[in-house]
Design brief:
Length: about 725
């Protein structure tokens, strides 16, 4: 494997730390989990320690003082209360602290569990129905995405530390990880053109729809075309000219009408029939999965996504990424008891790293990425590299711009440049250069091929047939640039019966069990709201960092395959593991732990595990206080709690502001705005991640095509006239 000589010591006790260690293990690292007295807390998470076994597969266990292990380690993972900066274990090349709110700031050291952080991050304010208790998203997704950032930060810092010989510390905040992945669209959209400050909880329409065989099918209509296709499927062609219903907001306004007509159709069909009808119309859809359903999904069966746990008979997900140039790690059983391994590594010869650095060359300086990705999952993956020194060239076309551009609150009739006003596009494409190329035109393909020759990484996230139809699949890329790393992020993978089906984050949340564990007590499943996109994007960025490390060592490029569904399966693995062991379906989390305050739509989230009051007592206590006062009183009593913050107000969070999580950038169309950065801070910098706004459509056509490829002004004028390149959408 890629990091088979990497030594990692993990002293964390959280799911986030364990998942970080798992990803490093999947990439080949030798990971030693140093367990506290009495064993790692996850051993007691369930009665048989299955989650511990899933996350600690192929690792070793030690107990007692970790210093002898750290002395010979390359990376050390630090838990909830990392030591002060001057006491960190700088004998390791890289140290990573994973905490609730990050180091520094007014709340340094405050430990809040994920369910409370959902209230403070703004996520809670976005989930559920208006007029009802806001919903906490189930499944520990905040823990898993924080662990992903930990692994990504560790490998990125390791890349730089190897070059500089200087030790580096990576500081990861769960609050910021959740803000960026679970809330960012809502946070930014209220302050962008057309947005209005306020709390707006919603459930997607259409969403998880009941079927005639007592199951649920998740149906996703992100684009207007998908909505029109659904109208045709359900026999409501009479509504094709209804412009209000073509928008998500319009469907919310007429929710009773829309839900009624959709459910009249879905309840007249079986789940399997509905999925096939939607697939034929290219509408993303899937049966809402759970621990029982997932191992039977044909696509996941064909691709062997679920495998037997080594030494056991139960099923668990395989590693979430696939390297086509490197073998998978052969799994071994998780350590059966704490302290199984008492023999530390020997200290490597050749010296240890120096002290922390104030500033150093960015980790990906000199790396160039040709970015064909669109929407959210792909652009956020390449955004990591753009923030840390890479030259990222984003490719769109006049005929098919990045679809996320059209999620702006401003409509075409209000502003002809509406497509430059999407908050998600603006935040996920900072620091990038943008060009347009019509790949249906041979000249556009030829220009793309010439750019491939000059790039280290080529990234795309369409259905597999798209780039292949343009002659830009991996074989073609490898023929042009043999050492290129190509990242492909199809929804379902490059093989299998669902290979060419489209799929969005919502589809994956429905299919893989995320929706199953989120919802009201006794109610239907509700999706998490897009978290799969950034989660998959961060897994993809991690895989590309690893592939670049492999290339540095061997000179070899390779294909990296990162299906959205397999990332989602990895972070919902507990559901399949639990069902495989004892037939138990993990249920919906419900609305527990969230209580109404005195004000209008005021709520406070309380850690149920540490609350001495019963839910009824706590509800009576909270209703006599405003949410902020209730949270302060509870914290003073040692009970983790937080008032629910509306998503748009998280831009003013004192802790995130103190850590410079938001940075101000001026855009030529939407003006000055604050954008989230990353929940990782590197001791060697950068002090600032964002230096330029997201590109307007085709903004850098002349610069890239003239300066990189040598085109003349006459060439550029001719390409403009032929619409091979351009600056305005043609569709």
């Amino acid at each position: 494997m890629i990091y088979d000589d990497l030594r990692v010591v993990d002293t964390t006790t959280s799911i986030a730390g364990a998942y970080c260690a798992k990803l490093l293990t999947d990439l080949g690292a030798d990971v030693v989990c140093v367990e506290p007295p009495g064993g790692h807390p996850l051993r007691a998470h369930d009665h048989d320690g299955a989650l511990f076994s899933y996350l600690r597969t192929s690792q070793r266990s030690a107990s007692g003082d970790p210093s002898s292990w750290i002395e010979a380690a390359d990376i050390v993972l630090l838990g909830a209360t990392p030591p002060p900066a001057d006491e960190r274990p700088d004998r390791a090349w890289v140290s990573v602290s994973i905490t609730a709110l990050g180091n520094g700031g007014p709340d340094d050291g405050l430990e809040l569990p994920e369910e409370v952080l959902q209230a403070r991050s703004g996520s809670l304010s976005n989930h559920g129905h208006m007029g009802q208790t806001p919903l906490t998203v189930g499944g520990h997704l905040g823990e898993y995405v924080t662990g992903t950032f930990g692994a990504l930060g560790a490998c990125t810092a390791w890349r730089r530390a190897q070059r500089t010989g200087v030790a580096e510390h990576v500081d990861v905040s769960m609050l910021e990880a959740m803000q960026m992945t679970m809330v960012v669209a809502a946070t930014l959209s209220t302050r962008f053109p057309g947005g209005r400050p306020g709390t707006f909880r919603f459930v997607m329409i259409p969403g998880n729809e009941p079927t005639g065989d007592d199951r649920y099918v998740g149906i996703t209509t992100v684009t207007a075309q998908q909505w029109y296709s659904l109208l045709k499927v359900i026999g409501r062609d009479d509504l094709l000219d209804d412009e209000q219903l073509a928008t998500m907001l319009g469907r919310f306004v007429r929710a009773d009408e829309v839900n009624g007509m959709i459910r009249a159709f879905t309840t007249a069909h079986t789940a399997d029939e509905l999925v096939e009808l939607c697939a034929a119309a290219r509408i993303p859809a899937g049966i809402v999965g759970n621990g029982a359903e997932l191992p039977r999904v044909p696509q996941l069966v064909e691709r062997d996504v679920y495998v037997k746990q080594p030494g056991e008979q139960w099923l668990r997900p395989r590693a979430p990424f696939r390297f086509h140039g490197v073998r998978d790690r052969e799994m071994t059983p998780a350590p059966a008891a704490p302290g199984d391994d008492h023999t530390p590594w020997s200290v490597r010869t050749g010296g240890r790293p120096g002290g922390t650095s104030v500033a150093a060359q960015l980790p990906f300086a000199g790396v160039r990425i040709l970015d064909f990705t669109a929407f959210w999952a792909g652009p956020v993956a390449t955004s990591w590299f753009a923030a840390l020194g890479a030259d990222v060239i984003k490719v769109e076309s006049m005929q098919r711009p990045d679809g996320i551009r059209f999620t702006a609150a401003v409509r075409p009739s209000q502003d002809p440049q509406f497509y430059e006003q999407s908050p998600v596009f603006a935040s996920m494409n900072l620091n990038k250069r943008g060009i347009t190329l019509d790949l249906s035109n041979p000249e556009g393909v030829d220009l793309a091929r010439r750019l491939v020759e000059r790039c280290d990484v080529v990234a795309e996230n369409f259905t597999p047939r798209v780039l292949e139809s343009f002659g830009l699949g991996y074989d073609a890329v490898r023929a042009i640039r043999p050492d290129a790393v190509m990242l492909r992020m199809p929804a379902f993978g490059l093989s299998g019966p669902w290979r060419d089906r489209p799929g969005f984050a919502q589809t994956m949340e429905q299919l893989t069990g995320m929706a199953w564990v989120t919802g009201y007590e006794g109610g239907p499943p509700i999706i998490a709201g897009g978290v799969v996109d950034p989660t998959a994007g961060m897994h993809a960025a991690l895989a590309v960092v690893a592939a670049l490390a492999h290339r540095d060592r061997t000179g070899e490029g390779q294909l990296v395959e990162m299906p959205l569904i397999e990332v989602a399966a990895a972070v919902t693995g507990e559901q399949v593991v639990r069902y495989a062991i004892d037939g138990v379906l993990l249920g919906r989390r419900g609305e527990g732990g969230v209580y109404r305050g005195t004000g209008d739509d005021e709520w406070v989230a309380v850690d149920r595990d540490r609350d001495p009051m019963s839910p009824d007592e706590r509800a009576r206590w909270c209703i006599t206080r405003d949410a902020e006062s209730a949270a302060r009183e509870l914290l003073a009593q040692g009970i983790p709690a937080a008032a629910m913050i509306p998503a748009y107000l998280t831009l003013d969070d004192a802790q995130m502001r103190a850590r410079n999580f938001f940075e101000t950038v001026e855009h030529p169309v939407v003006g000055v705005h604050d954008y989230p950065t990353w929940p990782t801070r590197f001791s060697a910098g950068p002090e600032r991640f964002w230096h330029s706004a997201a590109p307007t459509l085709g903004q850098h056509n002349d610069a890239v095509l003239r300066d990189e490829l040598g085109l003349t002004d006459d060439d550029l004028a001719r390409l403009h006239a032929a619409h091979v390149i351009g600056n305005t959408p043609r569709a």
